[in-house]
Amino acid sequence: MPSSRSSKFVRFALAAAITLSGAVATTAATVATATTAQAASSVGGPITRSEVIQRAQYWIGKSIPYNQSGTYPDSSGRNYRTDCGGYVDMAWHLADGPNTQGLESSAYTTQISRSDLKAGDILNSYWDHVILFEKWDDSAHTTFSYYSFGSTPVKHVTGVSINAAYFDSHPNGDYKALRYNKIVDDATVMPTNVQLDIVGGDGALYSQFGNYSSGSFNSAWTAISGVPISRLTSVNVGGNLVHFYAVADGRVFGRDHIPSSNTWTGWSEIPGGAANVKDIAATAVGSNVILSIVGGDGVLYTQYGNYDAGHFDASWVRRSGAELTRISSVTGDSNTVRIYAVGPGGRVYGADYTLYSNSVGAWGEIPGGATGVKDITASTSGTNVILSVIGADGTLYTQFGNYAAGHFDPSWVRRSGAELTNLSSVPAFNGDVVRIYAVGPGGRVYGADYTLYANSVGAWGEIPGNATNAQDIAAANSN
Asked: CA 331, CA 316: separation in Å to the nearest integer?
């Protein structure tokens, strides 16, 4: 994750948004503050697994000297001991500082089976060392990834066999699998609404709401004031907060919407001076956002929005790629963003952005030989990814990436539709359904459900409101 940060995004947002939209910009500070407060645990209190991993990542990339007598602060300034036990104490947000012996006390932990290890659990060697479990690297639970502070600096280690002779230079057999008594699984919150937004033929932003419970949309699209835009993406964070990012005159802007109060901030430019941008995608990791764009040179660029700290990075990072035209992205896990793009010849490619190392891996073509693709969208179902594209014939095609098994299907499946131009999608019903939305003939807006267990896409239905001439579309779940 990038270590350098620009001036505070909240201050920047206020200045820019006042220029564009007047006093409504004061909402931006409220949004940033509320999001941070909702995400954090209290010292010594219950803590979610995702927050444990986020806290562990805070010390990654910092040259913190290993010193059993030293301390270093967490993101809120609370100091923890700079050794393996202190690192776990920090990740768990403990009020005190047990060492490896203390961590085995029933006051803190309960022993579990190794096969039951989940993010935020530990493998503890009573006399010597402790490592923080991040995830299983395979569905068979034979290899795993972990965080460790056994020497300078803090390390993130992947691809370790659970049967290896040593973990971090200490005998495998000395370790016990332990679970913090106050750790809680992250809640799966069923979205109750979907927010659809389009770029109208006049370049204005228009918004619609669909209620999953009643199965209906509003009767009309609502025009949202602001600068003319050409490309649009949105991402939900925390249920009642949707971040919007758009391309306007080739530059990148952002604004927020709080669905419960129907409150919008004004547009404010994302730092870094991006120009001639062709397409944009956004992915949330916790309360923070990774932006990906296709630059004017057809190459991938990324930006990191640290909403906990209240700002974006100072510049866009040029990555790789050539002749990219369209882009989409999803969260893989707490440390990975999966990016998918349409490249040369309209073929489809994927690459992983790893947050802790702030790096993007090599592009690999998605199997199936898609060509002439016009647009792309991605949604998740558990650890897997559903890709949807518009083919050269204007029809919907889908692909399924099974990340547990480590592969995509061998071919794209042709679905239905005609004269489609733009796509967006969101997961629903705990990942059993992907809702796909498209701009079709005459710039009208349609929706269809992809049901995973049946591997079928239902009939397209027009979204109410009689939208015409839509130029782009974005969908986000909200509560």
From this structure: 20
CB atoms within 10 A of CB 170: 17
Provide the CA 371 distance to its chain's centre, in angstroms.
Answer: 27
pLDDT digits (tens, 9 = 90+) for 397-417: 999 998 877 889 999 999 999
pTM of the model: 0.67
Whether the CB-CB separation of 352 and 361 falls below 8 Å is answered with yes
For residue 196, give the 3-state DSSP assignment: strand
Query: In terms of C-beta density within 10 A (0-12 exposed, 13-18 middle, 19 or more buried), how is residue 2 classed?
Result: middle
List, in order, residues 6 or more apart from 101 with CB less than 8 Å away: 126, 127
Asked whether the beta carbons of 338 and 330 are under 8 A apart, the reply is: yes
CA distance 324 to 318: 13
At which residue do the structure tokens 């630059």 appear?
A: 295
What would the two tokens of residue 330 be? Answer: 């999803």
Q: What is the DSSP letter of 472?
A: E
> Does the CA dihedral 317-320-322-324 come out positive or negative?
negative
- For residue 309, the surrounding DSSP H or E stretch is none
Q: What is the pLDDT of residues 8-37, one digit of tens each?
A: 222 223 222 322 222 222 222 222 322 232
**Cβ-based burial of 394 (10 A; exposed 0-12, middle 13-18, buried ≥19):** middle
